[in-house]
Predict the structure.
Amino acid sequence: MTPEEMKQRTKKFGLRALKLAAALPRERAADVLGRQLIRSATSVGANYRGACRSRSDGDFLARMGVVEEEADESLYWLEVVAEAGFVPPSRLEGLKKEGEEILRIIVASIRTVKSRTRKPRTRQSEIRNPKSEIE
């Protein structure tokens, strides 16, 4: 999947969460959950776009860490909405599945960059002591 495709996918995820929140009952508790879901789900796409503009692997990893946290938080709010009885769990299946897939893609991207940036550890016995070569 290209970064552009992922940008579209994460934006669509946020838009679907907005529609779900708009369909929640007009109660205080549902409103609070809806706002939390909107915040975290739209943050996935916004922060992914920021990660695409990273200037280094370290910057990318930091930003993608935020995307991972927000995607996981969105899944949490979807679970709470269902368990609170505001929406039948079957109605959330598609959105939950999409959130889980996005989360898996993000985690895989993070792991790929981490494995690429890891430097092999030098064993202490392999480090040369310049003084011992002079003597």
In short: The two ends are 58 Å apart (CA to CA). The chain has one domain: 3-115. Residues 89-117 form the longest helix (29 residues). The CA atoms of residues 52 and 79 lie 29 Å apart.
